[in-house]
Amino acid sequence: MPSSTAMDSYASLIAAPMTVAQRKHLLKQLQSPATISTLRRPEILMDFFTDSLDMGDLGLAVPALQGLFHLITSRNLDYPSFYPRLYALLDKDLLHSKYRSRVLRHLDVFLAPQNHLPAATIASFIKRLSRLCLFAPPSAIVAIVPFIYNLLKTYPTTTFMIHRPPYPPYTKFKHNLGNDPFNPTESNPQLTNAIDSSLWELETLRSHYHPTVASIARIISEQFTKQQYNLEDFLDHGYASLLESDLTKKDKKPPVVEYKIPRTIFSEEPSDDDAGSHERMDRLLDIWDFEC
Amino acid sequence: MAPSQLKQLKASLREHGVLGPQKSKKQKKATSKDGQKRLQRNAALEGIRERFNPFEVKAPARKEKFEFASGKHSKPAVGRPGVTRGLGEERRRETLLKEIQNRNKVGGLLDRRFGESDPTMTPEEKAAERFARQAERKLKKTSMFNLEDDSEDEITLTHGGQSLGLGERTKDDFNEDDIGSLNSGDEDFEAQDDRPRKRLRIEDGEGLVEEGDSEIPERKKTKNEVMKEVIAKSKMYKAERQAAKADDDDLRAELDKGMSEFYAALRGHKPAGNQLPSPPTTESEPHMDPARAAMLAGKSREDAEKEYEANLRQLRLEARSQPSVRTKTDEEKAAEEAARLEELERKRIRRMKGEAESSEDEDEDDAGADADADADAELGPDEDFGEDDAETFGLTVPPSRPPPPPQRKELDVEDEDEFVLDDDLIASDSEADGASEQDAEDSSSEDESEDDGDDDFINGLVLPEGTQLATAPKTTEKRSMNNNLAYTFPCPQSHDGFLDVLKDTKLEDLPTIVQRIRALYHKGLAQGHQEKLDAFAGVLTQHVAYLADSETDVPFSVLEGLLRHLHSMAKSSPEAVGAAFKSQLETIADERPLQLSPGDLVILTGVSTIFPTSDHFHTVVTPAMLTLGRYLGQSSIQSLRDLGIGAYCSSLALQYQRLSQRYVPEVVTYITNALAILSPTSLPDKDQDGRSWNFPIRLPAKPLRVQMTAAEVPEKLIFKQLVVEDTGARDSNVHALALLGGFIRLSVQTAYLWRQKSAFPELVSPLVHAVGHIAGQSAKLPKSIVKLAADTLETLQSLQEAAIDSRLPLLLHNHRPLAIKTSIPAFIDNYNPGRHYDPDQQRAQISKLKAEYKKERKGAMRELRKDANFMAREQLREKKEKDDAYDKKFKRLVAEIQGEEGREKKEYEKEKRKRQGRF
Q: In this structure, is residue A250 part of a structural domain?
């Protein structure tokens, strides 16, 4: 049992004004369930966590969320806007930041089936993640797609997002089916209509330029025979590791070489007999001029 | 007369103590507890049974089933338990009984002499048999008659070098002596023999004495003589064979000498020499070939001769000419070309889809991968076996499922056919034949028609050195270069070496120099040239990057020439060029992944032309594409030059994906970022619908926004100005405007490239937002740009709307439902319900062993029981014998004593009576 002075010191600490760095440090100390459980009245941390969450910094939000989640699950804290807060965390910076892996690990816990979440909420998370994926680096796509697979597998209702016959019992309207019913501006994951949408973003990623990423994206369209993908295996990749594995890959056969040697590379083809096809093929010369 | 069977049985039972006087309960209990007694009793009963049923016959308990249907009309099997039991008894008597008797006894002799233990043989018979055996053993020695083996194995007793006994030797000597002494006297005899004189004299004497006997005319030959004869004969045969062989060789040599003429005659190759002199002989000869006579008839000699010559020549030509390839018509050629291109395109598409090529090993690969996938599918979450999920997709360093490596073999053959025909040329030089010349012409003309762009490569490079000198000036002329360039260069194996070579040359001569080096070190000219050229390919790749980096004013025609040289080198050795490009990419990745230099851009451009960029996985293209993506995704934009490089990279990325239309997210984000950076006012965070960005917008530390300017903005982006030179403040605004225009055009290209994607409306929306923002800045931008932006916006929006209209909800899972796993029931031929068909090999083996063990155990127990019975019987018998003997002895002694006593008593009585009578 920690002394009341420790308790008081924490209470005074979190009440005092602090800089962002101090707050981060304090959060790092307080986020773990072990620390929280040593406190006599952990409820006092609630405001501290919610304040940190509202500051809009990923570095603060992630540990704050973790602490809040622990309070909710163990201390019966009533925080109805937890999932909207979590949903708001998935913004444009997430997949490009260094907190990506950590947030994904937390998401894995927060969206676990034992939390009994409604399918609409899960669908919103899936849709938001796949929308972010459309502009994400390969390393993020590689992690998100198996995560979404796991979600789809755990909540079978959401699989309508990848397989929806184009007529009314399944769609809301008869026409204009290409319009995405998903409302990206809605902040409540329960109300985004994502459950009526389709994951075209992931379908597009099946033709990602990198073969590994493309083949991972393809698991969405194959039979869901695997129960779960181990998320840890897909985190912590990057351009460098992908590039290294590509460069060190042993190729059994010599590389294929383009059959036709182009007559020119940096200048317009002198003969302009069929300029149409040429123009179609060469996007470089449309924009660039290599002459001095 | 023997008593009846029943009485006999009763008697024997009583005798063995089986039947006897009534026993009390106590006694019965005692006997039943005493195992030894019970055993004895059983043994006794067994013995009695055996004795009373010597001809016991036992029918099988059950008749054979379906005796008639199965067609086996055999006698019913009859067991003779008595006989088998008797046999067993016999065997036991021989083994077990002996052992029992020999128990606790040590030593003894084992007599192995023949017939020793057989009492039926007389001593004479035994001796005869033993002698016969010995003789037989001697005969078995095969080496005695082996001529090759000189060693005399026969053991003879000798004394003083002379054999003893009834030696054939003495007899031999005697006979030989006899003949010798008769014919040639003592001299040669002495030469033959070196036995002691004395002995000889004695023998001579004997010989004289026995002379009469030895004059039998046909003496049986001794073994020695026979052997000698045999040897002599075999030697003679051998000599004969050798002589015959020598004769044959002579004959063959003679024939060989005439062979060349014979061949000539066969081919009709020797007309003038031999046929011309022949006419005079034909004149003189009365017999003439009728055909020839007909030909000669009515013609002068000269004419006939000429005609003959002509015919002969014609014949020769005919024999040598072969069916030639028919000259194809233009339509056929066009069709062939079309088919070839179609095939190439088909292969390209297969590679693009990442499908396995038709070759077998790749099928296997694929199957293996499938199996992997299956295994993966089977693994539940619980039974993960520690396998990395990501590894299945080749995400970690040792990729377990490599995408099918690109196939090349056939393609290589094809381009070798039409691109490098130097091998043909060089080979045909030695023949110097008209026909092959024509071939060469044919193929070269074909070549011209096929790849019109490659002429200048072939010119200098396919011909051997001599011809190259003649053609080289032509090429230099064509390229308007100076003629005093050296013709021979060393083949540089390192970049420094190459720089040495190029020290005093002009930049414009570089392609010519490379061409000459390639011609000089063509692989057809000497061994090892290929390796040198492979190294040179690496050097050349380095040099391209070096040139573009270091020399700011290098003309692009030179770089282009070098890249095309690399391309044509890649056709002959793709590994080397591929490795060279890969090492360049590695350097980029290690040293400057986010600061690409112009040289790197040229290299990446080269990759886009030399290698097929549409492949699913390509060992060079994939890393190159990843390098581009990395730069676009992660580089931070701080200057206009960065933006220029980024624009070029985006452009290259689109160029890479022009055929396969794969999606590159980094391009969209980069273009949007660039537009946001260049836009004269900052881009709002949310678009008109209130949607926020899906990716971060990073603005540079120093704003690069364009300002209104009246200067002329070039239509295209100029590589030199934007990428190579570090733009000063001088005309930065013009450059910025040019870049803005370039990026707007790039966004159109992007939209056109990916307009088929299902998520096109979403992916184009940031571009629409950014371009729309720029189009709205008419006050701060030149009209041309605003107009361009407005047009672009219109295009993008119309494309977006069209995509939304044509799009349908996803239908990705039209798979057939997974069937429950079934297995075909195994059908076993000749199924036997008695047999065990255990599918588990190990278990089957174990149960088989168990059964065997059980059977053996039962058998062994039965045997042991029988042995125990036998031993009990034997012991009983022995005991009885001993008892009998003791009884007999006792009786005898008693009788003796009684007799003695009686005698003594009589004596006593007599004495008594005597005494009584006296008294």
A: no
Calpha distance B692→B655 (Å, rounded): 30
> Smallest Cβ distance to A142: which of B395, B553, B609?
B395
Interchain contact B692–A (C-beta under 8 A): yes
* Minimum CA–CA partner of B573 in chain A: A254
Whether residues A40 and A104 share a domain: the answer is no
User: Are A168 and A204 in a shared domain?
Assistant: yes
> Residue A193, class by beta-carbon neighbours within 10 Å (0-12 exposed, 13-18 middle, 19+ buried)?
middle
The answer to whether A99 and A110 are in contact (CB under 8 A) is no
Could you tell me if A127 and A194 are in contact, meaning their C-beta atoms sit under 8 angstroms apart? yes
Dump pLDDT digits (tens) for B684-734.
877 767 677 788 888 888 877 887 776 667 777 777 777 666 555 556 778
The answer to whether residue B617 neighbours chain A at the CB level (below 8 Å) is yes
Q: Across chain B, how many H-helices and E-strands are there?
A: 36, 3
Q: Is A173 on the interface with B (CB under 8 A)?
A: no
Q: Which residue of A lies nearest to B584 if distances are taken between CA atoms?
A: A247
CA-CA distance, A285 to A267, in Å (whole number)? 7
Tell me how many degrees the CA angle B526-B443-B450 measures, rounded to the nearest 5: 110
Nearest residue, CB atoms, A253 vs list B406, B749, B814 = B406
A289, part of any domain: no
A168 with A33, same domain: the answer is: no
Instruction: Determine the residue among A172, A223, A243 to mutate to test chain B binding: the one whose Cβ has the most chain B Cβ atoms within 10 Å.
Output: A243
The ipTM of this complex is: 0.90
Q: Report how many domains make up chain A.
A: 2
Size of interface A-B (CB pairs under 8 A): 342
Burial class for A161, CB neighbours closer than 10 Å (0-12, 13-18, 19+): buried
Is B609–A266 a contact, with Cβ atoms under 8 angstroms apart?
Answer: no
Per-residue DSSP letters for A117-186?
--HHHHHHHHHHHHHHHTTS-HHHHHHHHHHHHHHHHH-GGGGGGTB--SSTTTSS-SS-TTS----TT-
CA angle B604, B608, B613 (to 5 degrees): 125
> Phi, psi at residue B663, to the nearest 5°?
-90, 130
Structural domain harbouring A111: 93-238
Residue B876 in this model has a pLDDT that exceeds 80: yes
B453 touches chain A (CB under 8 A): yes
Quick check: is A251 in a domain? no
Predicted pLDDT of residue B454? 41
B window 16-35, beta carbon within 8 A of A: none
B contact test, residue of A163, A229, A290, A291 with most B CBs within 10 A = A290
Residue A129 included in any domain: yes
Residue B428 has pLDDT above 60, yes or no: no
Smallest CA–CA distance, residue A155 to chain B, in Å, is 16
Q: Which of B408, B564, B658 sits opposite A253 (nearest CB)?
A: B408
Q: How confident is the model at residue A226 (pLDDT cuts 50, 70, 90)?
A: confident
Q: Is the pLDDT score of A124 beyond 90?
A: yes
| Domain termination site, one of A51, A79, A107 | A79
Confidence of residue B455 (pLDDT cuts 50, 70, 90): very low
Tokens of B834: 């008695």
A135 and A71 in a common domain: no
Contact A231, A108 (CB under 8 A): yes
- Asked if residue A104 and residue A45 are part of one domain, the reply reads no
For residue A168, give both structure tokens: 């009314």
Same domain, A50 and A161: no
Query: Who contacts B834 (Cβ-Cβ below 8 Å, separation ≥6)?
Result: none
Name the residue among B411, B664, B813 with its Cβ closest to that of A209.
B664
Q: Which two tokens stand for residue B36?
A: 């030894």
Question: Can you give the pLDDT at residue B293?
Answer: 67
Pairing of strands B158-159, B162-163: antiparallel
Chain A: give the shortest CA distance to residue B843, in Å.
33
